[in-house]
Write a sequence for this structure.
């Protein structure tokens, strides 16, 4: 088993290099560079200054040379500095000679996106599991139909529209929640308890809306899993033993029905660092989606590469973890692994 | 597995109907909240009363983008200038009527040969940290901006200075190789930086970019990345103190979210789009009562530009025919909801550089048809104009900009009516510029120019400014215009300069290398709690002398704790 894991980890190195090379090439296939953004299209700026900027960032060199420069830095886990924000570090913060700390761009964004996505996943599961169970238990009845309808309405509604509507309702008509932003303007001067309340108030809509619109898939998964399980013999046995309905459904049926769900949740781990650019723009939260979108629009190559590298590394790690978990859970898979 | 009580399935099912009912009743009830109702007459009186000027208060505005740095000459982007203009001073500034006057300088003298400008600084200027502000700082800033190592996008104007010197702490002298009229405007744009804090540092990465020390009305209080930038009054401001105590700029990238914040009275000012300005605000009593709306002409305009290197756009008759065939008023009314004006020169109407005698090409399809006939085009059986077997058809390229795409559709329809086939292709900005504009690979584009206050447009129209990264990408070449542009650059007398640019605009209109589509209004809303805004809007704009704005204490928000 240990050999297998080591082998898999070693295999990740050439894979990562390959992925990064392809990403780098594709990124450079897209026309334009940092000097072509809309702000630079200003008659007060000169062609010479743009050429100088290109030279400064080695953009005048062949792509493969630029890639090797990037790779050389990456070996030392140095994600480089952004073009767009005047050499702000891409990932980790740096401290200069005078002791001034400059936070990294991904560092500033990743926490917000992670919090929103993890909370969102939890809320989705907390809603989807009971809804799926109810839909399966009342299969074909009005409860099932209304849950399916609700899910598909949520699934079909464009999220930006729903977000704006909810913002209007909870923020403008009723002063229940803040409309946008990550924290209040006076956040720093609040007490710890008020800071927590403030943070949760600001998180309410950004977490709720994607959870509701993303409910459909997981609810259906739970419902189908339950339908498969509920009519099996061991459930009938459990019922005939005289167990309460509650215990039958939750202790015996649900645990089996949820097994495939664990795989889905596992595979969604790399997705946790990806944010939606539309939602982040509307909520005025500077997360990973907006960071990536702006970097692509501005052709800020180091930032784009930084996010892609982290994303691909997480995907590879997620796959490995999923495989190992499978091997741990399923003896057949485990035996196959050992023979390798 | 222990099951939490709220997941008790049987109970949930039994009560499901009741829960759902409750939910909808709650939704229905809460929709009748009162924060959208109109104000009582008492509240209205309080808001509209005349108040004496007073200090203090916080003004919160929204901005779309975040500055990358507060050293504007390096950052070069609009969000940076919006913030840094409150922190730093320039040597000269524009007054209410857009004439130049001194900001840091008391007076300035132009030598007889028009090549040397001598600035005299006001005495006893100070940085916010108490250190004196002298011409050594000015000289250092000039050096920093022109230093290739710093790569300022605006370096070119300042690099024309042959020599700059600061013979004493109050005198700053620059000498040009030949008279350079845009120089005056350039000295109204250069924000002076403190030498004592920046010497020897990398202007891109120094912590000063996020913790600047300036000399103007405000200083930086805090900057929460991606969220907000807070400024507070600088007590040693060289131009005297401002009234409003704190300026907060919230970064909200989405315009609709900004508008909701405005409706909820969480922000005091924002830029509006035409729909919000002319439909949404007037339809809502409360917004109407609490907001002042402003519209002012920007110095930009939208145009349709021909690739003059391609047939048949090298013929002035064809260009004029297309110009006559486009209904500009229809675009202004349809796309900009009437919030734009028809222009006939590349200058902001109402300023001295705009030639008031010129009229843009009127919508006249008959004239267009006649001109095309003259040029040898005939209508074929399909109703398409053809010459030498080739149909008159072209592609309009534009970037992904709602207004420009809509304008293109209206133009397409008008041109189809006289037999010209047009296709439209909106493109992502970077690929538009690098694959089409730079390579000269386009027929017709719809784009816009945002211009400064100086009339010099050498970079856009001079025949030498073609190819590569340069801005005369339509390939315009007219010896008369070239001559006028060079003359205008060398003439420092405003009246003589005005005559030159009037002649230039006339020639340009006659030649029709571009079709002026419209100059849109800049639209903004400011809450009525902000008093002291110059009314009516002076030529210099709504923001003119914003340091004199004030917020009377009865009208201040109470939830912001200072």
């Amino acid at each position: 088993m240990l050999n297998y894991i080591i082998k898999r980890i070693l295999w990740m190195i050439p894979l990562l290099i390959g992925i990064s090379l392809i990403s780098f090439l594709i990124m450079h296939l897209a026309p334009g560079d940092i000097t072509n953004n809309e702000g630079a299209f200003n008659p007060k700026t000169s062609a010479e200054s743009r050429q100088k900027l290109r030279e400064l960032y080695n953009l005048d060199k062949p792509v493969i040379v630029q890639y090797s420069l990037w790779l050389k830095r990456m070996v030392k886990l140095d994600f480089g500095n952004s073009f767009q924000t005047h050499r702000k570090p891409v990932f980790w913060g740096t401290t200069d000679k005078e002791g001034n700390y400059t936070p990294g761009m991904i560092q500033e964004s990743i926490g917000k996106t992670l919090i929103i996505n993890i909370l969102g996943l939890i809320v989705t599961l907390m809603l989807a599991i009971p809804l799926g169970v109810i839909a399966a238990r009342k299969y074909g009845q009005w409860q099932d139909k209304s849950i399916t309808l609700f899910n598909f309405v949520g699934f079909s509604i464009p999220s930006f529209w729903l977000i704006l509507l909810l913002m209007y309702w909870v923020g403008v008509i009723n002063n229940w929640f803040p409309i946008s932003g990550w924290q209040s303007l006076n956040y720093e001067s609040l007490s710890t308890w008020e800071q927590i309340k403030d943070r949760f108030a600001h998180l309410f809509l950004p977490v709720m809306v994607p959870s509701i619109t993303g409910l459909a898939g997981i609810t259906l998964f739970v419902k189908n899993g339950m339908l498969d399980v509920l009519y099996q013999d061991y459930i009938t046995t459990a019922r005939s033993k005289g167990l309460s309905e509650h215990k039958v459904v939750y202790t015996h049926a649900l645990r089996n029905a949820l097994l495939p769900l664990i795989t889905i949740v596992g595979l969604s781990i790399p997705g946790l660092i990806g944010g939606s650019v539309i939602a982040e723009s509307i909520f005025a939260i500077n997360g990973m989606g907006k960071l990536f979108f702006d970097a692509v629009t501005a052709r800020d190559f180091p930032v784009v590469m930084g996010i892609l590298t982290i994303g691909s590394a997480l995907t590879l790690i997620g796959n490995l973890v999923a495989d190992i978990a499978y091997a741990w859970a399923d003896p057949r898979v485990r035996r196959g692994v050992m023979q390798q | 597995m222990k099951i939490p009580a709220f997941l008790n399935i049987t109970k949930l099912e039994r009560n499901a109907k009741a829960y759902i009912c409750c939910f909808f009743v709650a939704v229905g009830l809460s929709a009748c909240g009162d924060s959208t109702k109109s104000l009582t007459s008492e509240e209205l009186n309080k808001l509209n009363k005349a108040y004496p000027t007073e200090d203090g208060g916080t003004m919160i505005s929204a901005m779309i983008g975040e500055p990358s740095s507060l050293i504007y000459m390096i950052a070069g982007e609009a969000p940076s200038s919006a913030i840094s203009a409150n922190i730093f001073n320039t040597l000269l500034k524009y007054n209410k009527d857009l004439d130049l006057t001194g900001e840091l300088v008391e007076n300035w003298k132009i030598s007889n040969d028009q090549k040397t400008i001598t600035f005299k600084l006001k005495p006893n200027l100070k940085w916010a940290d108490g250190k004196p502000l002298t011409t050594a700082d000015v000289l250092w800033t000039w050096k920093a901006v022109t230093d290739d190592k710093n790569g300022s996008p605006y370096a070119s104007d300042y690099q024309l200075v042959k020599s700059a010197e600061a013979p004493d702490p109050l005198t700053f002298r620059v000498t040009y190789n030949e008279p350079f009229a845009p120089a005056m405007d350039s000295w109204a744009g250069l924000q002076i930086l403190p030498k004592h804090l920046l010497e020897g540092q990398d202007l891109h990465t120094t912590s000063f970019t996020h913790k600047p020390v300036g000399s103007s009305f405000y200083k930086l209080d805090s900057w929460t990345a991606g969220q907000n930038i807070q400024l507070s009054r600088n007590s040693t401001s060289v131009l005297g103190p401002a009234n409003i105590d704190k300026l907060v700029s919230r970064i909200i990238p989405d315009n609709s979210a900004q508008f909701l914040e405005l409706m909820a009275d969480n922000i005091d000012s924002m830029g509006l789009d035409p729909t919000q300005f002319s439909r949404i605000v007037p339809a809502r009593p409360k917004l109407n009562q609490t907001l002042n709306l402003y519209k002012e002409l920007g110095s930009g305009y939208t145009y349709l530009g021909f690739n003059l290197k391609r047939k048949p756009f090298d013929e002035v008759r064809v260009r004029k025919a297309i110009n006559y065939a486009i209904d500009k008023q229809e675009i202004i009314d349809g796309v900009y909801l009437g919030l734009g004006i028809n222009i006939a020169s590349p200058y902001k109407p109402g300023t001295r550089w705009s030639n008031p005698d010129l009229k843009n090409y009127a919508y006249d399809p008959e004239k267009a048809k006649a001109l095309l006939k003259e040029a040898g085009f005939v209508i074929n059986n399909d109703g398409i104009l053809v010459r030498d077997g080739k149909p008159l058809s072209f592609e309009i390229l534009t970037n992904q900009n709602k207004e420009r795409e809509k304008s293109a559709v209206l133009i397409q329809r008008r041109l189809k009516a006289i037999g010209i086939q047009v296709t439209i292709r909106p493109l992502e900005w970077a690929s538009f510029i690098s694959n089409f504009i730079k390579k000269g690979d386009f027929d017709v584009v719809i784009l816009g120019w945002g211009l400064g206050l100086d009339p010099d447009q050498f970079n856009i129209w001079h025949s030498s400014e073609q190819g590569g990264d340069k801005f005369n990408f339509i390939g315009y070449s007219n010896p008369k215009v070239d001559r006028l542009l060079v003359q205008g650059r060398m003439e420092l007398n405003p009246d003589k300069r005005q005559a030159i640019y009037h002649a230039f605009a006339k020639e340009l209109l006659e030649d029709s290398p571009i079709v002026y589509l419209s100059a849109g209004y800049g639209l903004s809303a400011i809450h009525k709690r902000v008093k002291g805004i110059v009314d009516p809007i002076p030529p210099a704009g709504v923001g003119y002398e914003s340091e004199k704005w004030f917020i009377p204490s009865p009208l201040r928000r109470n939830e912001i704790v200072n």
About this structure: DSSP finds 19 helices and 21 strands in chain B. Residues 11-70+217-298+523-555 of chain B form a domain with the D-Maltodextrin-Binding Protein; domain 2 fold (CATH 3.40.190.10). The longest strand of chain B covers residues 514-527. The two ends of chain B are 51 Å apart (CA to CA).
